[in-house]
Amino acid sequence: MAIYAFPIKVALLTFPILAFLLALPLLIKEYRKYGAFPLIKGFILYSFIFYLLCAFFLVILPLPPRAEVAQMTTMKIQLRPFANVSRFLTETVLDFKDPRTYLPALKQGVVLEPLFNILLTIPFGVYLRYYFNFSFKKTMLLGFCLSFFFEFTQFTGLYFIYPRPYRLADVDDLINNTLGAVIGYGFAPVVEKIFPAREKIDVLAYEKGQNITLTRRFVAFLIDWVLINFVTNSIEIFLSKSLIQNLVYLVFSRILQVLLYFIVLPTFFEGRTVGKKIVRIKVVRNDGQKGQFKDFFSRYTWLYSLTSILSIGASYFNRLFNENNTDELFSILTTVYLGLFFAFVLLLFGLLIAMGIDWISHKPFYYERLSQTKEINDIKSN
User: Fold this and answer.
1) What is the pTM of this model?
2) Do 138 and 130 meet the contact criterion of CB atoms below 8 Å apart?
3) Which one has a higher pLDDT value, 263 or 338?
């Protein structure tokens, strides 16, 4: 069992990083369609990703040394269908008349290998029917495609990283994996008795999407400022370093960013920025009417007046510190520690999303009360 435990341990270590990388695309997809990402949906989607990760690592791990693989002379591919049946008939210790042979027979490779390949893709068939609502034919085809991907990975020596295959690519594995997906398709109705149907999950997501969560706002905020910084940094390539580090430029640049992006742009696009458009929310007045220039000016002046002072001040003093500091090692360590801190914050955010944790904002923020504006759901009922 140790040979199976090791790939699963590697998957457990790799999953948090993968969960973080997939958090934003998944959130954008779910927010655009439903407006929310409920816990049950997060559990199903991330468990599916974790399952695929485990299955892939079970196929490729453990990785042998390249020098050892180069000296292998074993068969690279087995193309005779149902060869495992003939192997079973010639190698098994099973005697149906003798019950004492049943357990030893189950421990033989001629039984465990095809059984493992069937069990490997049973969850795949369950997910495809239960959550993705795929038909029997699609499930069988995708089960075959997943198995072909595994066998191709093995036959190419992990995409030609190795000089030759270190595991046998077997046509019987294609058959058994596809059979496993079909069996999983048949088991899916049992899962539906434990978990809510996909349609109910979608309705729940849409109902929750009527309340704008803090996570949804944060995703829009993140998209907006990534876009703003990308444009700003692209322009600053053509400007002198002394100008960029000037305090007057920093203040003027931030005012221009907020004015053009958060005030002028929403005025012409019904309260939407690019980030808000992507996650399907928009800003309106408290009476539900379309916001005007003065409404957005009041809202974002209150919001960014304090935050801009803090960020500009931090940026300015950081640049002064780096210019006047002669200890290069200290500067490097400071940069590394700050980078690790922000990486930790982002990783924590990704893990919270992977766990389906969301924060619902019921009370308006101070800048919403002062500007008499609010954010509403921009998804039309289907």
Assistant:
1) 0.77
2) no
3) 263
